[in-house]
């Protein structure tokens, strides 16, 4: 590579007095968080963080390594430092909060070495910080091959952490509660509470053309970035003489709920890139042909148990139309499921339905009933097959009035790629961008983890990316603390399509059916939903998704009083706030949609009672509170189905007592009284 111009820059720095030793600091707008950056005598970059005037992150290294020997981590000189600040308010078409304040102080450090120019950009908010690398380097046209990221997070104190293990192919892993110094590796977000009582979460923002970041233990209480890689071991392939990394983020709060109420991840993404009218991107409630396949009483493949038949889908459309539900999903509608799971086959067509699924008739029938159809594109990891059909499939779907596509990537990725490496990050991004061109929204399963790109492409509406409801159908299921960990971990990254709302908690109506026993050998008799019924209702509020599903078979909702909550529920939230909570223990959260408020509270395996002031309600207005609560003798293990529904009138000056059974919860609708 031609390094002459970079050599001249480095020599100029020496002649003008720039050196390697300057130390420079930036603080958050409220002054409670500060970051110091320095370059050592050897030209190594370090940063450290203080919170409330106490060490939080000890000196931690920065930089990258490159396969051909280009120096991207050492021998840097500081060329200059700039400071800036921002305080703006922006709006989004949907979200937990539609109005977001973006207030930060920025420090930009310009550096130079013999091989590269580098801008380190630091932004400090009152709720945390983000930093990223912006490299420029001389190129002769060859590809830059990054082999390691050296970014460290060396914590000053021990504490407790909540995370899943690092895995470059799946996020569907059980959460662990461990001391910080006992975490060997972790995916992000990893959330922690230090001995001083500071809550924090490490993640990344604006993951666009880079591998995902996981963390690996380094030292006693330190972590180093570890990136997903290509099949040859290279972490990232860069062309063009410049590259900008995702933001490395640390959300920080004095209370656990402060992490949930933070908009830091969104604020570090670029503004909306979709021009024109965005009314086609809209939140919705849906039901669908999905849960029956996981239970084993229906199948994705055409046959005597086929779920996605014209007749069955019409039943779901009728139910949706009668119950204030916007849309119906049907999995297993398209040809190719016979080859699912066989790497030697390229199974799926995305425009050819099975013979017993009349797409045109169903599109007509749904439109007549005022209900939308949700498309389903399972790729089984055959990326080339999907990308070859994607444009035609998107155009065909749109022509049928389909506005939302659920994608899936179950199974290994072809070509030896990993689900979360740079190759797949590019693919997930391509899907969202091409969907936007066709005015389609995406709900991705087996996704790359959310990093806030929904600000730039708000048609990226929801994703899976953790152990969801289906694990209850064919394993021991998700434990009671799982649902009260997700808001403080996975959901910090973005919305999750957990698919809550199973009312047949013990599978009493399905377990003994012959087809379930035949198809579902993974159920050893211990599969069930590990909550009370009231907690299932509350999870529609707590586990945020703008496309929220009532996931059970619709016959289990017919005539059930608790289903009234979902009929009334509006997923198009205008404002949200986490009120109380501790990771893995309990959570209470409220959302406002137009003039109505919806509160959800859930607990782990311990019974507990919360006292919640209702000062979030509008002053001077009386509300009817419809309370869906655990029954007096409810218990997630022994008596999960007992519930009670109570109505009372309340105002903003009142206080609500929320009593929750073991593994239980409570949901409340607040409707203004006219």
Give a description of the structure:
With 674 residues, the chain is of the alpha+beta class. It has two domains: 4-267, Beta-galactosidase, Chain A, domain 5, CATH 2.70.98.10; 284-561, Aldolase class I (TIM Barrel, Alpha-Beta Barrel). It contains 13 helices and 37 strands. The strands form six sheets. Strands 7, 8, 9, 10, 13, 14, 16, 17, 21 and 22 form a ten-stranded antiparallel β-sheet that branches. An eight-stranded antiparallel β-sheet has the order 1-2-3-4-12-19-18-15, with no helix packed on it. A hairpin with a 2-residue loop joins strand 9 and strand 10 (128-137). Helix 5 runs parallel beside helix 6 (359-369) and helix 7 packs parallel to helix 8. It is globular, with a radius of gyration of 26 Å.
End-to-end Cα distance, whole Å, is: 74 Å
| Overall structural domain count | 2
What's the total number of strands? Answer: 37
Shape: globular
User: Based on helices, strands and strand pairing, what is the structural class?
Assistant: alpha+beta
CATH architecture annotation of the largest domain: Alpha-Beta Barrel
Radius of gyration: 26 Å
The low-pLDDT segments are 1-18
- Which whole number gives the mean pLDDT? 95
Provide the CATH top-level class of the largest domain: Alpha Beta
């Amino acid at each position: 590579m031609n390094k002459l111009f970079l050599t001249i820059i480095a020599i100029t720095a020496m002649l003008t007095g720039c050196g390697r030793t300057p130390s420079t600091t930036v603080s958050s707008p409220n002054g409670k968080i500060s970051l110091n950056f320095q370059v050592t005598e050897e030209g190594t970059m370090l940063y450290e963080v203080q919170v409330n005037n106490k060490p939080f992150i000890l000196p931690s290294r920065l930089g990258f390594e490159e396969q051909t020997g280009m120096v991207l981590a050492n021998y840097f000189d500081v060329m200059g430092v700039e400071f800036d600040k921002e305080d703006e308010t922006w709006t989004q078409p949907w979200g937990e909060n539609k109005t977001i304040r973006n207030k930060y102080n920025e420090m930009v450090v310009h550096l130079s070495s013999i091989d590269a120019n580098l801008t380190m950009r630091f932004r400090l908010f009152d709720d945390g910080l983000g930093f990223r690398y912006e490299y420029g380097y001389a190129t002769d046209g060859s590809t830059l091959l990054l082999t390691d990221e050296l970014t460290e997070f060396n914590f000053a104190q021990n504490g407790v952490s909540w995370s899943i293990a690092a895995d470059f192919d799946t996020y569907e892993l059980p959460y662990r509660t461990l001391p910080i110094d006992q975490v060997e590796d972790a995916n992000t977000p990893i959330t922690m509470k230090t001995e001083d009582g500071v809550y924090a979460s490490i993640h990344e923002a604006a993951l666009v053309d880079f591998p995902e970041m996981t963390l690996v233990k380094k030292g006693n209480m330190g972590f180093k970035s570890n990136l997903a890689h290509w099949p040859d071991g290279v972490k990232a392939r860069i062309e063009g003489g410049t590259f900008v990394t995702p933001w490395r983020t640390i959300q920080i709060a004095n209370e656990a709920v402060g992490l949930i109420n933070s908009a830091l991840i969104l604020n570090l993404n670029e503004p909306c890139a979709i021009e024109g009218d965005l009314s086609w991107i809209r939140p919705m409630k849906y039901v669908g042909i999905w849960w029956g396949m996981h239970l084993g009483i229906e199948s994705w493949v055409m046959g005597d148990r086929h779920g996605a038949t014209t007749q069955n889908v019409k039943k779901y459309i009728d139910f949706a139309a009668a119950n204030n539900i916007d849309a119906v999903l049907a999995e297993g509608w398209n040809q190719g499921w016979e080859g699912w799971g066989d790497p030697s086959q390229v199974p799926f067509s995305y425009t050819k339905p099975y013979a017993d699924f009349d797409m045109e008739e169903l599109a007509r029938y749904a439109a007549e009933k005022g209900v939308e159809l949700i498309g389903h594109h399972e790729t089984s990891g055959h990326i080339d097959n999907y990308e070859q059909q994607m444009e035609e499939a998107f155009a065909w779907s749109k022509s049928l009035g389909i506005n939302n596509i659920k994608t899936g990537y179950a199974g290994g990725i072809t070509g030896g790629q990993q689900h979360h490496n740079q190759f797949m990050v590019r693919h997930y991004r391509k899907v969202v961008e091409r969907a936007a061109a066709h005015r389609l929204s995406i709900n991705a399963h087996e996704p790359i983890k959310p990093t806030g790109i929904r600000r730039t492409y708000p048609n990226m509406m929801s994703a899976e990316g953790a152990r969801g409801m289906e694990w209850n159908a064919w394993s021991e299921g998700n434990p009671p603390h799982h649902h009260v960990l997700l808001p403080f971990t996975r959901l910090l990254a973005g919305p999750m399509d957990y698919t809550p709302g199973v009312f047949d908690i013990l599978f009493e109506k399905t377990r003994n059916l012959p087809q379930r026993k035949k198809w579902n050998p993974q159920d050893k008799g211990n599969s069930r939903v590990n909550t009370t019924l009231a907690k299932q209702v509350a999870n529609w509020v707590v586990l945020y998704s703008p496309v929220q599903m009532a996931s059970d078979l619709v016959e289990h909702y017919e005539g059930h009083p608790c289903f009234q909550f979902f009929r009334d529920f509006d997923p198009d939230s205008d404002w949200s706030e986490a009120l109380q909570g501790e990771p893995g223990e309990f959570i209470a959260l409220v959302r406002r949609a137009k003039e109505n408020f919806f509160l959800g509270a859930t607990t782990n395996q311990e019974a507990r009672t919360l006292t919640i002031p209702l000062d979030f309600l509008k002053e001077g207005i009386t509300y009817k509170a419809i309370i869906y609560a655990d029954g007096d003798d409810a218990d997630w293990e022994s008596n999960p189905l007992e519930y009670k529904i109570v109505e009372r009138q309340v105002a903003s000056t009142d206080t609500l007592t929320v009593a929750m059974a073991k593994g239980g919860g409570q949901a409340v609708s607040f409707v203004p009284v006219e």
